[in-house]
Amino acid sequence: MPAPTTIRSATLNDIEAAAALGAEIVRLHHAVDPKRFFILDNIEQGYAWWLKQEIERPEAVVMVAEREGEIVGYGYGAIEDRDWSILIDRHAAVHDVCVAPAVRRQGVARALVTAIITRLEELGAPLIVLRTMVQNDPARRLAETLGFRATMLEMTRESAQSGRTR
Question: What is the pLDDT of residue 163?
């Protein structure tokens, strides 16, 4: 039986571990579709810089999953303002969820998303959206079991100009 997992708000001491998991999200997305998802050098440093700001922002929820003193999962959501480009009023969004490979399929992602939803609702979220890659069937199935439904599908087309140098 796996050791118990604690889901809690991230602290500044958790940033390095959470950033490493966030970087895995970037690498996964880029590996699946490098024309759509960027990759940079020093992803962990960039994620750490950004997470430090988000931890301190009242509208943001940054959570970690901890097992035996080790961070094994990370999740991030936030309250977002009305966005005319995607026709959505004030809402919350679950932006990131990543669980270490060694503890996947043990309920850690479900616990993280559930905790994020709870916190976003406590912050007054009238609606919560979650985005996942079309190819990420396990994440999509998890979201559906938590009550999310498909509402939009992003489609990407490379511009004829994308292959040319300027």
Answer: 63
Could you tell me the residue ranges of all domains in the chain?
5-145
Q: Return the exposure string of 8-36: e unless at least 16 CB atoms fall within 10 Å of the residue's CB, then b.
A: eebeeebbebbbbbbbbbbeebbeeeeee
CB atoms within 10 A of CB 110: 14
The CATH number corresponding to 5-145 among 3.40.630.30, 2.110.10.10, 3.40.50.620, 2.60.120.320 equals 3.40.630.30
Q: Is the pLDDT of residue 103 over 80?
A: yes
Checking if the pLDDT of 166 tops 90, the result is no
Q: For residue 107, which of 146, 147, 76, 57 has the smallest C-alpha distance?
A: 146
